[in-house]
Amino acid sequence: MKSKRWNKAGMSVAALTLGMSLIAGCGGNNTDNSSSASPAANGNNQEASGSTAPAKNPVKVKFMNMWAKDSTENVAVTVREQLAKFQADNPDIIVEEESIGDQNAYYTKLKTLAASNDLPDIFISKGSELAMFAQNETTAPLDEILSADTAWKDGFLPTAFNDLNSGGHTYGVPFSMLATSVIYYNKQIFADAGIASFPKTWAELQDAVDKLKAKGVTPIALGNKEQWVAESCILSALGDRFTGTDWFNGIINKSGSKFTDPDFVKGLTAFQDLAKQGAFNADLNSINNDQQKTLYFNGKAAMFMEGSWAIGAVASAPKEVADNTEVAVLPAVDGGKGNALATSGGAGSGYAVGIKGFADKKDAIAKVIKAISGEEFAKGLAEKGEPVAFKIADYDKSKVSPLAVKYAELSSQLQFTPIYDSYLSPALVSVLNADLQALLINAITPEELAKKVQAEYEKAS
């Protein structure tokens, strides 16, 4: 990464502590696909006939993901490390990776492919998308390949599959357990502005925003061009501060909760109030999450909010930034029903499989997924300081960055609450995300946003 100007930055609910792990090493299941057929037993007969058994063509497995090809995110880097090892050990399987470095473009393409039942062999998907694909029978249930290797299946954390189930079946294999809402802040910039410690209350946060603005620093860098950051990395946690998790469970279970309920509207109002106060950069809807980290890495912003996946990027930032970065979660809010030591998190997304070619490539697909979701992968990920979804007995903690250790200490105290876009329907998330852009530039009121989202919610009820 560049030391002066950062244009790319790397990007996860579980503690890093005893080592949970993401992606399994090359799986133990045998595959029927081999690089070549056995030659005829009698060499003289081969010579006489002038023929040999034809070599089988390698099985091609298409793998589509949203990581840029040059991504420094820990998950992306570790996946590609494991794929390189897998390719060296399995010449009979060729993994064709398609990388799309924009989440909006990625999910747009994913929906287009799903509409024509042409999803890739392996792709990344959020739980909410998987439920829709499963209903339309365009993605394959993975119960069979998981049950065929119980050591692999049982190696995942108990809650790792929660976001990836639908209708009693599992449709995704997790590659991480992540917090989507972590505040990264520069303690030196805080100190220079007269802020001794991270705010413990909402009023203290608002006071800190004013002090940082007075020093000519953007308090919170926000890149919401692709729309998901405001919702997944801020509102999922901020909303829970006001509503508590029971409210969101009521939304999911359709047991009486409404988006127009006063507590949810209070969360929207608090979010908009921060924007009105000048907490964010003016171009918040024109830059993405990589660019928000650029503002922070260049010392132009005191904080940014993103998931635990950003740990690797911050650890690789300029030394004066990396050394002064601390992690926190949103402070308590007055009258809030949620736990002040909570943040949104879970597996969120996982590896899913297109149903079109699954029957013919099942063994090869299973081997690839195991290679990027089990113990060996998890160990590599943990050594980069990333929270993992697979249990690992030990890993080299000396390789873990100081920031990852700080996050592990923080996350061990946290309760993890649902990530909104892992559970809400894609149509509803689309409305919510677009309206959050409008909310943050004062183009819509919290009440108006709540009514629009509730109307979309009721359409599917």
Taking the sheet with the most strands, its summary is: 5 strands, mixed
Q: How large is the radius of gyration?
A: 23 Å
Number of individual domains = 2
Number of helices: 20
- Beta strands, count: 16
The chain-level mean pLDDT equals: 87
**CATH level-four homologous superfamily name of the largest domain:** Periplasmic binding protein-like II
CATH domain class of the largest domain: Alpha Beta
CATH architecture of the largest domain: 3-Layer(aba) Sandwich
CATH topology of the largest domain: D-Maltodextrin-Binding Protein, domain 2
Uncertain runs are 1-51
The gross shape turns out to be: globular
Structural class: alpha/beta
Strand order of the largest sheet: 3-2-4-14-7
* Helix content, binned percent: 40-55%
Strand residue content: 5-15%
How far the N terminus sits from the C terminus, by CA atoms, comes to 48 Å
Characteristic key phrases:
disordered N terminus, 2 domains, globular, alpha/beta, single chain, D-Maltodextrin-Binding Protein, domain 2, five-stranded mixed β-sheet, 16 strands, about 450 residues
Structure, described:
The chain is of the alpha/beta class. The chain folds into two domains: 36-177 and 347-393, Periplasmic binding protein-like II (D-Maltodextrin-Binding Protein, domain 2), CATH 3.40.190; 179-345 and 419-460, Periplasmic binding protein-like II (D-Maltodextrin-Binding Protein, domain 2, 3-Layer(aba) Sandwich), CATH 3.40.190. It has helices at 43-49, 74-89, 103-115, 127-135, 143-147, 150-154, 187-192, 202-214, 228-243, 245-253, 262-277, 289-297, 311-315, 319-322, 358-371, 375-382, 402-411, 420-423, 426-440, 446-459; strands at residues 20-21, 59-65, 93-99, 122-126, 165-166, 169-170, 173-174, 178-179, 182-186, 218-221, 301-306, 325-328, 342-346, 349-352, 390-391, 415-417. The strands form five sheets. The chain has a five-stranded mixed β-sheet with strand order 3-2-4-14-7. The protein has a four-stranded mixed β-sheet with strand order 10-11-9-12. The chain has a three-stranded mixed β-sheet with strand order 8-13-16. The longest helix is centred in the N-terminal third of the chain and has 16 residues, at 74-89. The radius of gyration is 23 Å and the shape is globular. The N and C termini lie far apart (48 Å). The model is unreliable at 1-51 (pLDDT under 50).
